[in-house]
Amino acid sequence: MGRLNPEKLFVEFKPGVTFIEPIVPRKYTLTHSDITAELFLTIGLVYDYEKINPMRDEVLGEWMDLDNKYFFNIYLYVGQFTPKVVAIRNKIFRKELPLAIEAIRYGDRKFFDVHKELDNVPIIVYFNSAIPYYNRVENWGTFSEYK
Questions:
Q1: Which intervals hold domain Staygreen protein (predicted)?
Q2: Gap between the terminal Cα atoms of the chain
Q3: Interatomic CA distance for residues 2 and 74, integer angstroms
Q4: Quick one: pLDDT band at residue 2, thresholds 50, 70, 90?
């Protein structure tokens, strides 16, 4: 996919969420079209499950507040497939994740303008897989690295 093309990013805010609040709960559902390379970002109080397709190649993200310290969690479904398929999905997620994080940051940029401190919180990524080698939790830096 490469760098973000803002013209191919479509953002939808669900009821209960504005450009500036809430921080928690604030959940992101990022999907895409393989045909048009368009990205679709939904920001709401819950994930937009209607946009999730059977391929399960969406990126889900949410703000967490633990002991008055914010974190941003991302959840990726690497899957319960054959080892070869899981390895391919893992590779694709890793390649495209910087673009996904950039899309979330850009798509909700007015929110970040108001909450500047959130540009510097850790992004924790959960790679969910039935195969232990691919079932990992990793720190992917901060949003300030994806502006």
A1: 4-146
A2: 16
A3: 20
A4: low
